[in-house]
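User: Okay, second chain of the day. Same drill as before: sequence in, C-alpha cells out.
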Amino acid sequence: MKRVVLAAMLLGLWAASAQAQAQAQEKPTWSVEMGTGIRPIFTSPSRDRYAQLADWGQGIELDGACYPVLDITAVLRSHRKTEHCLTVGASWCHHRLIQYPLFGTDPAGKPRYDLEKGTPAGWTDSACSFSVTYQWRHIWNPDRPVNLYSGLGVGLVSADRVFAFPSFTPVGLRFGGRRHFYGFAECTVGSLATVLHGGLGWRF
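Assistant: Same drill. C-alpha cells below.
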C-alpha cells in the first residue's frame, strides 16, 4: 500500500511539473529585432526627385548605386508556435549625381542644359521609402536550437504614394536565443526586403 501511495505521489508531482512547464511555454514573450536585406522592389528615386534635380541641371546615375535597408520589429510570441510581428522599415537609394552644363535659356527664360555632356558631381541620397508591416509567423519546430518558421502579412508603404504591399516569408531560420540574443535569416518578398532579409534579435 505504501508503494502505491508513494507512486501516486510521484506521479502527481510529475504531472504538476509537466503542467507548470507547459504553462511556462505558453506564457507570451516579447522580442525586438533589427534587420536589413536586399532592397524592396519599390525602392528607387521618386519622380519628384528627378524633377527637382532637373531644375538644377542635374540627373541621377543608378549604375553603382546602393540601397540601404533598415528595420525594427516588435515580436509577440503568443503561443509556442505563433508570433505576431509589427515592423517599421526604411529604405533609400544612395546614387551618383550627373551635372549637365548650361548652354542658354528657353523663351520663358528658364535655363537649358546640354544633356549630352554630363559629368559626375558627387553622391547623394534619395528620399526614404517608409513601411509599416504586420506579419504572422508560424514556428515549425519551437523546441529545437535552430527554429524554422514561415510568415504571411501585409505592409503599408509610403513611396511616391501610399499603398498596401503583401509580405510573404516561405522559410526563415532563427538560431541562438536560448537566453536573450539570437540571429535570424529569411527568404522573403514584401515591404521589408526582396529575396533575403536578416539581422539580430533580443528576447526579454
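Confidence is low (pLDDT under 50) at residues 4-24.

User: Thanks, on to the next one.
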